[in-house]
Amino acid sequence: MTELDRSPETIAPLDQSVLARFERPRVEEPVRLAVLADAHLATRAEGSWKALHRTEAALERAIADVNDRGVDGVLVAGDLTKDGEARNFDRYEQLIGRLDAPTATIPGNHDVPKAELDHRVMPVERFTERFCENGLPARRSFGGVDVLTLNTATHPHGRLRTSHDGVVGARQRRWLDDALADAETPIVLGHHPVLSLPEHEQFSRSHFTLRDADATLDALARHDVPLVFSGHHHLPATNRERGVREVIAPALCSYPRAYLLAEVGPEGTTIRFVPVETPTGAVDVRVHGAGGNRVGRKVTEWAERRLAAFPLVDERGGE
């Protein structure tokens, strides 16, 4: 029996649980950050392995839940919309305006122009004006934590217009070097992950990670960056290389439909997995994932394996 052959009754319940405990980053005064990723908001579309017909309600629930928790900030790791449609950006802007906490937002590969689309997508400069208060790349402070936001979804020469992969680029790496030089407790936010997961051998690695992942990791490791958040994969995951910890946020659109709550304090950082789908909806979302295309089926399977293995990392021995 495979992971996707199990009946809904045997799936682990999607309760709030600890995804990871890290020794770093640390701050004296606790800071709580919500991390939202891959909402793929679709006000008219239906179906697909992303269960597009449920995306609007899922985003609304996530925003309401985040407000109930009184977080210090919200990090949005890209792919706000299905494919950069104007109506979906408009609705996203209306919904995200309900957040009580300040936000730090970056675009995903579905938020930028792509040559194969049959509609116009606003340029990244316009995206930055609407959704990025401090521009891109940018530094945003939440208490004692400095969040450094990167645009990995576009390329200075436009060569990522038709792909899923991303790039940081030399200009942003120079900016990152400068920003990290005086950031006491930095967290880096990018849409595309820096580190590759073992499952990526089944697909093209560049489908998921940065084209310039090695050069970007060099910069992060050189400054001893304790934590990177990313999205794009649609599954909760952790990775570590050369001292750099990376946490991939689950998607708000596809199974298991959740966001992350990061609690940074004097003892270290705890990452909690917070579901946003109703029990009935969770079954529907899983069915769409299991019956989708090859990527959707595999991502659903990989997500279920990790849900069953929480916490994925515990550097503090369950304190």
Can you offer a commentary on this structure?
The protein has a 7-stranded mixed sheet with strand order 4-3-2-11-12-1-13, with no helix packed on it. Strands 5-6-7-8-10-9 form a 6-stranded mixed sheet, covered by helices on one side. The longest helix has 15 residues. Helix 6 packs across helix 7. It is 26% helix and 20% strand. It is globular and about 45 Å long. With 319 residues, the chain is α/β, with parallel strands linked by helices.
The computed structural class is: alpha/beta
State the order of secondary-structure elements, H for helix, E for strand. EEHEHEHEEHEHEEEEEHHE
CA distance, first residue to last residue? 35 Å
Q: Care to count the β-strands?
A: 13
Percentage of residues in DSSP E strands: 15-25%
Instruction: Enumerate the strands of the largest sheet in spatial order, edge to edge or round the barrel.
Output: 4-3-2-11-12-1-13
Query: What is the number of helical segments per DSSP (H or I, 4+ residues)?
Result: 7
